[in-house]
Specification:
The complex is a heterodimer of chains A (111) and B (113).
Chain A: E1 4-7, E2 10-14, E3 19-25, E4 30-38, E5 45-50, E6 54-58, E7 61-66, E8 71-76, E9 85-93, E10 98-101, E11 105-110
Parallel strand pairs in A: 2-11
Antiparallel strand pairs in A: 1-3, 3-8, 4-5, 4-9, 6-7, 7-8, 9-10, 9-11
Chain B: E1 3-7, E2 10-13, E3 19-26, E4 32-38, E5 45-52, E6 55-58, E7 65-70, E8 73-78, E9 87-94, E10 103-104, E11 108-112
Parallel strand pairs in B: 2-11
Antiparallel strand pairs in B: 1-3, 3-8, 4-5, 4-9, 5-6, 7-8, 9-10, 9-11
Chain lengths: 111, 113
């Protein structure tokens, strides 16, 4: 069964800083890796995904995937107080109809 | 545009009482549907998935059941609630089985006392 580990558990940074979040997964046959944002009491919202080795950029978000090391990272440029939320890493497995989530990183951006 | 609606928003129920939570997806035919559960401070855990009407697969056994009576409706239920059922229940849909994102509803907060 797929296992998803995220680090750090929590992170506090000043507004404008670059944020880096990490995620490792266990199954090399994993398909897409997703990053979700979850605000308190709300459902998660998909931010960005990656399938192939390398990086992908969308706006202030950049994601890096290294399948050999089973590691993916999310980087948020020019962080804003509105970015404060829990960030969840999720991994899909082909044929399993399953999206497995990590426990998340609590991000706080201080004005 | 597709919309996903969950009901009720919140429930306080007694141990041993029955439970029924609902989820409706509008604007998408034959969606893949999912139920997730999140204990307070815990990890999102997939409970069930359904790729077609009348067909539901269980992922984790938590003394809960799910049904898909219509293409756009997904129901989560149990006849007897346990304290351990407390948490946040989320319904989600996706376009295909592997590489599309899951869109989540706003969730139902359940407290069992």
């Amino acid at each position: 069964q797929e296992k998803v580990q995220q680090s750090p558990e929590s992170l506090i940074v000043p507004e404008g800083a670059m944020v880096s979040l990490n995620c490792s997964f266990s199954d090399s046959a994993s398909q897409s890796i997703w990053w979700y944002q979850q605000h308190p009491g709300k459902g998660p919202k998909a931010l960005i995904s990656i399938f192939s080795n390398g990086n992908k950029k969308e706006g202030r978000l950049t994601v890096y995937l290294n399948r050999a090391s089973l590691h993916v990272s999310l980087h948020i440029k020019d962080s804003q107080p509105s970015d404060s939320a829990v960030y969840l890493c999720a991994v899909s497995t082909e044929g399993a109809d399953r999206l497995t989530f990590g426990k998340g990183t609590q991000l706080i951006i201080q004005p | 545009a597709q919309t996903i609606h969950q009901w009720p928003v919140a429930e306080i129920k007694a141990v041993g009482s029955p439970l029924s939570l609902g989820c409706t997806i509008k604007g998408k035919s034959s969606p893949n549907l999912y139920w997730y559960w999140q204990a307070t401070g815990g990890t999102l855990q997939q409970l069930f998935y359904s790729i077609t009407v009348g067909q539901v697969e269980s992922v984790v056994q938590l003394n809960l059941s799910a049904s898909r009576p219509k293409d756009d409706q997904f129901i989560l239920s149990t006849e007897k609630l346990l304290l351990s059922h407390s948490g946040f229940y989320l319904c989600a849909w996706s376009r295909d089985r592997t590489n599309s994102d899951y869109t989540f509803g706003s969730g139902t907060r359940l407290l069992v006392i």
